[in-house]
Amino acid sequence: MKPTLSSLLVVLFLLGNGKTPGADKPGAKPANESLRKELLRLMEEDQAARKKFIEWLSRQGKGDMKKDLAGDQPVARSIREIDRKNIARMKEIVDKYGWPGKSLVGADGANAAWLLVQHADQHRTFQKKCLELVKAAFKQVLVGEGKKQIYGSQCQQKDGKLLPSPIEDEANVDKRRKEVGLNPLAEYAKQLAETYKSKDAGKK
Question: Tens digit of pLDDT for each residue in 139-167?
Fold first, then answer.
């Protein structure tokens, strides 16, 4: 069964910053406190608008939340405008930092970012980008903790050669890679070797 968007976003939040897996330490301060505060503020605005909408909806009695949210009521328009502004900002943040995880913005900041991305239903391309960050972060964390990787994309240098780090259930790695849109491991390894060979040649 393939992972759902929601489950992968939860993993993304739990993993923290995909660019620096394993960087979190007990009591460590966020690397970017100002960004943390900004994310918390955006989350507060998001939640305040939704609270007003729910209160308005409850006063109306029966209603269709999805339909009413797309309606012309001021409370609904307010949510849509806040979502538009927040997602635009989240795109900027992700483009600049990668996923704003715990090492960058603290646990509460990462939680705020995760909540904002959940409300990006009209921006599927952006959500898919976040899924790519999940895959990369998940693979890096496993290797960083000395565990076997799942897709074989993380490599190590051994005897002058670039080889995949240990892989869980290696016999079925190509099947797993195919499920997430990756090319076969042998093809990937060949491409990687050619890339590093070109880089080494350029240094000479």
Answer: 655 566 667 777 776 666 666 666 777 88
List the one residue out of 32, 6, 38, 2 whose CA is nearest residue 19. 32
Among 172, 128, 127, 173, residue whose Cα is nearest residue 153: 173
Distance, in Å, from the CA atom of 85 to the CA atom of 100, rounded to the nearest integer, reads: 17
As beta bridge partners, residue 161 has 158
pTM surpassing 0.85? no
Characterise 4 by phi-psi region: left (phi > 0), alpha (psi -120 to 50), beta (else).
Answer: beta
Contact partners, residue 53, CB within 8 Å, separation at least 6:
68, 69, 75, 76, 78, 79
**Residue of 80, 150, 137, 128 whose CA lies nearest to 110:** 137
Contacts of 88 (CB under 8 A, 6+ apart): none
Backbone angles phi, psi at 156, to 5 degrees: -140, 155
Distances (CA, A) of 118 to 49, 165, 168, 199: 15, 33, 31, 40
